[in-house]
Amino acid sequence: MNSVTRLPFLGDLDDGAEASFHIPEQERKRRRFRTIWISDIHLGTRGCNATMLIDFLDSVDSDTMYLVGDIIDGWRLKKRFYWPAAHNDVLWRIMKRAKRGARVVYIPGNHDEIFRQFTGMSFGGVEIRRKAIHATADGRKLLVLHGDEFDTIMLAHRWLAFVGDAAYTMMMRLNVLVNAVRQRMGLPYWSLSKMAKHKVKNAVEFISKFEHVVAHEAGTRGVDGVVCGHIHNAEIREIAGVQYYNDGDWVEGCTALVEHFDGRMEILHWADEIAARERAEAGRLAA
Ligand SMILES: [Mn+2]
């Protein structure tokens, strides 16, 4: 007989209880990468595409994962508390990766700058850093940072105001609405503001200026390249001998930057990946 008596109401205080996911973890074969960079998730906002990100997290694995800022949107949460179960699911999945042994490095951005005060500390295996130097498999050195560090230089440009302000919020709401309708009609995910960004001349100019400023700054620090987020525009390009990488966002672009085991870098557009997977599944069912 068990001699240890336990107060029944303390049962809920058990440590190590497995978190129950609102959206259960998918048991699919995961694609493995050496490194994954994601940023600009904006948990705590309606614009955050948590379901798509959960699908991504359940489909990939890596030795190292960098969270390149604006993971939680503290600005928006302060104004209005919004935290659906799916947003918890994202955090749990990230913590679980760290627990399973992946190196997880969190570099807070401007929307989650509140976490910058914990720089140098680590929570549940997640290291908090202001910036990082990543060594690729093929021996390159990449500076990893969020990118808001350059806002002061960029202030003359109007798109920045657009990124943070009401017009952008409204567009994101519209994006959610448009895609809810598209999903009901059986149409694939489509990014409204991505289209707008490419059509608006000022936006194109802003993005290009940002990329040049970041690449130039990285060049002066003696690294081969730079990985950032912040402007919600995924990109791989070389600027004046410096490799510029932007991992995009999970508000509407739904992109990640990955490093393969040979050092090759790639941007994954997750809406396209889901569409390809569903086509393949439909093909298998038809065969
Ligand atoms: Mn940002």
Automatic annotation (TrEMBL):
Which key words are in the record? Cell inner membrane, Cell membrane, Manganese, Membrane, Metal-binding
Instruction: Say if the entry is tagged with keyword Metal-binding.
Output: yes
One GO term (biological process): lipid A biosynthetic process
Q: Which residues form the Calcineurin-like phosphoesterase domain?
A: 34-233
Domain of life, per UniProt, equals Bacteria
What are the protein's GO molecular function terms?
metal ion binding; UDP-2,3-diacylglucosamine hydrolase activity
Recorded GO CC terms: membrane
Q: What Gene3D superfamilies does the annotation carry? A: 3.60.21.10
Q: Transmembrane region positions?
A: none
InterPro entries the record matches: Calcineurin-like_PHP, LpxH-like, Metallo-depent_PP-like
Descriptive protein name: Phosphoesterase
Q: Which organism is it from?
A: Sphingobium ummariense RL-3
